[in-house]
Amino acid sequence: MKTCTIPSTFGDLILVEEDSYITALRWGRNADNDMTDLLEEGRRQLLAYAAGALQKFDLPLRIAGTDFQRAVCAAMSEIPFGETCTYGDIGKRLGVPAQAVGQACGGNPVPIIIPCHRVMGAKGLTGFSGAGGVETKVALLRHEGAGGFLI
């Protein structure tokens, strides 16, 4: 496993690479940076996103978990920059309850890159598993110019 720390406007991020795939993105700092070409590209894309110059990530991802977790991550990845949908919307597409989608969304191992911040509850803004919680979710949505969410 190789990692690098990326300072960003959304907090310090740790990007994780395993076997030539991005497998995780966490908030925090890592003392060891094992820069690879893939981590450098991930760093470049995350900084471009934070600068407003990138709207869709293009990185090889490997999502650990069940087929359901991967299906929810795939559905979240299809939400366009600056738009939102609800857990119920994804649930209807996948034929499962909104609560199950919410749990899978909270277990997203690659937030920001897989935009779980774009998923809302039926009545508006909900929590966020990243550092800073809902405040970070709001910052990400504002950064993208996403409207229609309730604070």
From TrEMBL:
PROSITE patterns: MGMT (PS00374). Belongs to the MGMT family. InterPro entries: MethylDNA_cys_MeTrfase_AS, MethylDNA_cys_MeTrfase_DNA-bd, MethylDNA_cys_MeTrfase_DNAb, MethylG_MeTrfase_N, MGMT, MGMT_N_sf, WH-like_DNA-bd_sf. Residues 5-63 form the Methylguanine DNA methyltransferase ribonuclease-like domain. Keywords: Cytoplasm, DNA damage, DNA repair, Methyltransferase, Transferase. This is Methylated-DNA--protein-cysteine methyltransferase. One of its GO terms (cellular component) is cytoplasm. It comes from Sulfitobacter guttiformis.
